[in-house]
Amino acid sequence: MNAAASLPGRFILPPWGHPICMLENLIRGAMAGLAGTTALNAVTYADMVWRGRAASTTPEQVVGELAKRGGRAIPGNDEERRNRLQGLGALAGIATGVAVGAAAGQLHGLARGVGPVLGPALIGGAAMAATDLSMFRLGVTDPRSWDRSSWLSDAVPHLAYGVVTWALLPR
Fold first, then answer.
1. Is the pLDDT of residue 48 over 60?
2. In the predicted model, is pLDDT for residue 16 greater than 90?
3. Phi-psi region of 10 (alpha: psi -120 to 50; beta: other; left: phi over 0)
4. pLDDT attached to residue 12
5. What distance in Å separates the CA atoms of residue 136 and residue 131, rounded to the nearest whole number?
6. Burial track 148-167 (b if 16+ CB lie within 10 A, e otherwise)
7. What three-state secondary structure class fits 98?
8. How far is CA 97 from CA 39, 59, 86, 153, in A?
9. Chain-centre distance for alpha carbon 91
10. What is the per-residue pLDDT for 8?
11. CB 111 within 8 A of CB 104
């Protein structure tokens, strides 16, 4: 123990870092995750334009299932309810991207230390796992049954998320 830490009125810093630095890394990681989410959405929408495919309904199905399991009703007539579920699904995706980015901000040394190829792949994989595992656990979809096109529609945007988030993490 150092002398300053043993003086009355002083505190010992936790071994993992100063709380202010941890908060700063959390915020910077969350902002990086928000930028990564924007990249993920842009790549997803570009894929929809390119292939003429419809938007995925799984985010709104997840929200619907969570509401059902939580004993909550999504209010409104059929159209209003669908619109609310769609909006809540999009907001849930943004929240996931921010949360994964915040976690990456806390682990920025590790994420940056593995390099510019593995780092983005790990971050994008973490975001993909967060969404796909929750969808699987809720019974909304089973990734084991997806075809190659479905996997690419999921993996490529998440890789874009990982690249942008990794690039903006604290150094």
1. yes
2. no
3. beta
4. 56
5. 9
6. eeeeebbebbbbbbbbbbbe
7. helix
8. 11, 13, 17, 17
9. 11
10. 59
11. yes
CB 74 within 8 A of CB 135: no
Query: How many residues are recorded in the chain?
Result: 171
- Which tokens in the block code for residue 131? 């969404």
Side chain identity at residue 89, one-letter code: G
User: If we measure between CA atoms, which residue out of 69, 101, 65, 102 comes closest to residue 85?
Assistant: 65
> What is the spatial distance between Cα 126 and Cα 109, in angstroms, rounded to a whole number?
16
Burial letters 116-146, b for 16+ CB under 10 A, else e: eeebbbbbbbbbbebbbebbeebebbeeeee
Q: What is the pTM of this model?
A: 0.87
C-alpha to C-alpha distances, 139 to 98, 116, 143, 163, nearest whole angstrom = 24, 35, 11, 29
d(Cα 34, Cα 161) in Å, to the nearest integer?
9
